């Protein structure tokens, strides 16, 4: 296990290096830079002033040299300053990461708690009214645009009924645990509905496939109870594909909640990275992309470990027999 983790850690470092270089190159090749934007907004700035500022910030150097300077500083913990917020990039990013982790974490847990039993019921009640109702609800769920669902939730629960706030984190109201929970309810519901729709379909499909396997029929023939067959044999093996989907979703959800965060004015990672890219905030955008890449790599590592725990036949060591 330790050998596998060390090997994956070394691979992750290499992937992070490649992603950082490609991201830096793509951002650096975008038209204009912070100094150019500053010059266009200040008619009194001369060409000599622009050249001097670019030299001070190293923007007059070749792209590879600028990347090397950034990499050396980043290894030492210096990720540069955000030009939009006038703070160190990590100081701006950390609160946004925490806000997204709270939003996505709660929504993911709730979606799994709901999707797994719903998917199992749909599989066990295959081609009955329960299966048809659950499948119809799932199709409606993942066919619904995220922005439309968010707007409908605001229209019903905030505008019409006035039960919940339409957006924000509650800091303007003085903060507090319960105030933050109230502001989290609608965005969490929005993400949970979309996740339950897709995850329940995966659980239903994998359960149907597993229930047709020979070892399930063998367990039933040996007199194993229905509960033991479902939860001990079928569900445990059906969870392996779902673990893969969850691992792939981790990095996506950290940045992919952009629409939900924007509609509900939730200051998370997705909205922050979007604003940084649109505002040519190189340091903040690059650090955000690196955090997303690291999270995706960590999610895949945890998924591989979960495979071995769910199915002892899966070995994490190369060349091992099943």
Automatic annotation (TrEMBL):
Pfam families: BPD_transp_1, BPD_transp_1_N. The chain crosses the membrane at residues 12-30, 103-124, 136-164, 184-203, 238-264, 284-303. Residues 97-303 form the ABC transmembrane type-1 domain. Its main location: membrane. The keyword Transmembrane applies. The keyword Transcription does not apply. It comes from the Bacteria. It is found in: Cell membrane. Keywords: Cell membrane, Membrane, Transmembrane, Transmembrane helix, Transport. It is a multi-pass membrane protein. Belongs to the binding-protein-dependent transport system permease family. OppBC subfamily. This is ABC transporter permease. It comes from Enterovibrio gelatinilyticus. The lineage of its organism: Bacteria, Pseudomonadati, Pseudomonadota, Gammaproteobacteria, Vibrionales.
